[in-house]
Design brief:
Layout (H helix, E strand, L loop, with lengths): L1 E3 L2 E3 L2 E3 L5 E5 L6 E6 L3 H17 L7 H16 L2 H12 L3 H22 L6 E5 L5 E8 L2 E5 L5 H15 L2 E5 L6 H12 L7 E3 L4 H9 L5 E5 L2 H13 L3 E5 L5 E4 L7 H12 L11 E5 L3 H13 L19 H16 L3 E4 L16 E4 L6 H4 L6 E7 L2 H9 L3 E2 L2 E4 L3 H9 L7 E2 L14 E2 L2 E2 L4 H6 L2 E7 L1
Parallel strand pairs: 1-5, 8-9, 8-11, 9-10, 11-12, 13-14, 13-19, 14-17, 16-17, 19-20
Antiparallel strand pairs: 2-3, 4-5, 6-7, 7-23, 12-22, 15-16, 18-21
């Protein structure tokens, strides 16, 4: 049991006026912990704390080197708690424990450390000649108080994607975790204190929709950074637009893994395709759930891919040999099952999965599923599913593969598999998506920008571009 009563504001836990949120395991419904829900008044107190730290605290005059050191110290504090944090995230999200160490914690550390390495050389101030004579001093100044709203599927990783660049820019933060997975994020308070980050620079408020709405609407928040569904992102974007508020939105995806006809069908390919769609039980916004394969080699690729998915061990996420755990809750499970049934009604063929796994009557488990004979116009190929379900779609040539990959309202990530890296790179460059990996399922590089085209979002996280999204350019004409 982990209990966090109140909210973390100005460097301490203080009482809130809202009710208690119970956090339960998606594996068996066991009560894991409780957090307190922050009301609008509580959010106001957190924002005022962040504003005070921004305007009058030591963070206001911090140097890039000092901020880089603070980010590194925070990463060190998190790393010293890797096992505990991985255990907690695995329990509250359902991530397989052996995957959680890398997919939840190592990625979090990678983001913090990559950002800290970029800060010392980032150009926060520059002189340039004026076209009117003289010089212009261009300052990159913090955007201000940041409201960071993170999802449940990778709570620490998505927190790092917001917290690291905001700290690097000199901003202060009010962080709101998902009510489905607030425990590991709440534990960061200990890391923040151990890292010596001044009180009020990072504040944590838990809660559901009402808490998030209060944070988004607060006039003292200068920027909202949100990761979550496209539907919620539209509402947040509209609210920010009404007040001309800065906003970064990292939203949904329906990413494609394109397998070209020269590929060697070996374990690297099959393992990469499986990882791309099934990691974290398929609950990743950048999951490569549409697998596009040459029609001439369809069965040659489908059969070993299906065999690998069929062999995955489903079960308790705490067990080290588990490869697929539960989805986040029963609502998600029922939605995924309904989507698979609808796909079959539209003409898709289930080649593995499609039913609840035997022997796992409690918990929100979904068998890893592969659907063949899928067309790109089917609902299952259009909508983000957020579960362990892959669809395999045939194409005839590279042009059709690119057209199918781009025929989506999303554009977050993707992959191209080929024996010819130059050919793969040419295909990748034609894909309308924020990142594309070559012969790898990795959706991002920690030192490079990550974000979406189209309805997958606005703005970028990661790399110098991620820091720039938390800065305002100011020109002083000398």
């Amino acid at each position: 049991m982990y209990e966090y009563e109140g909210m973390y504001v100005s460097g301490e836990w203080i009482p809130t006026s809202g009710p208690t949120i119970e956090v339960r395991s998606p594996a068996d419904g066991e009560l894991l912990g409780r957090v307190s829900e922050a009301s609008a008044d509580d959010v106001d107190a957190a924002v005022k704390s962040a504003r005070t730290a921004l305007d009058s605290g030591p963070w206001q005059s911090s140097t890039p080197a000092e901020r880089a050191a603070a980010i590194t110290a925070l990463a060190d504090a998190i790393e010293s708690r890797t096992k505990l944090l991985a255990d907690v995230v695995s329990a509250e999200v359902g991530s397989p424990r052996k995957w959680a160490t890398f997919g939840q914690l190592a990625t979090t550390l990678g983001v913090f450390r990559a950002c800290a390495a970029i800060v010392p050389d980032f150009e926060f101030q520059a002189r340039r000649p004026s076209v009117m004579g003289g010089e212009v001093l261009v300052n990159q100044v913090p955007v201000g108080v940041v409201g960071a709203i993170v999802p449940w599927n990778a709570p620490l990783f998505t927190t790092a994607l917001k917290m690291a660049p905001a700290l690097a820019a000199g901003c202060t933060i009010v962080l709101k975790p998902s009510p489905d997975a607030p425990l590991a994020v709440s534990m960061l308070a200990e890391c923040i204190e151990e890292a010596g980050i001044p009180a009020g620079v990072i504040n944590i408020v838990s809660g559901a929709v009402a808490t998030g709405e209060a944070l988004v609407a607060h006039p003292g928040v200068d920027k909202i950074s949100f990761t979550g569904s496209t539907g919620a992102g539209k509402q947040i974007g509209a609210a920010c637009a009404a007040d001309i508020r800065r906003v970064t939105l990292e939203l949904g995806g329906k990413s494609a893994a394109v397998v070209l006809d020269d590929i060697v069908v070996d374990s690297k390919l099959i393992d990469g395709l499986v990882t791309g769609v099934m990691a974290n039980n398929g609950q990743i916004c950048a999951a490569q759930t549409r697998i596009l394969v040459p029609r001439s080699r369809y069965d040659e690729i489908l059969e070993p891919f299906t065999a690998a998915v069929s062999a995955m061990k489903i079960g308790d996420p705490a067990e080290r040999d588990t490869e697929v755990g539960p989805v986040i809750n029963e609502i998600a499970r029922d939605r995924i099952e309904a989507a698979v049934a609808h796909a079959v009604a539209e003409g898709a063929r289930v080649v593995t999965g499609g039913t609840r796994p035997e022997g796992l009557d409690s918990g929100s488990y979904v068998s890893p599923t592969v659907l063949a004979d899928v067309r790109n116009d089917m609902t299952i190929a259009r909508n983000e599913l957020f579960g362990p379900v892959a669809v395999v779609i045939a194409f005839d040539d590279d042009d059709e593969a690119v057209a199918l990959a781009n025929d989506s309202e999303y554009g977050l990530a993707g992959a191209v598999w080929s024996a010819d890296p130059a050919r793969a790179t040419r295909v990748a460059s034609r894909m309308e998506t924020g990142s594309v990996s070559i012969n790898s399922p990795a959706p991002m590089d920690f030192g490079s920008p990550f974000g979406g085209f189209k309805k997958s979002g606005i703005g970028r996280e990661g790399g110098p571009e991620g820091i720039a999204d938390y800065l305002e350019a100011q020109s002083i004409i000398l």
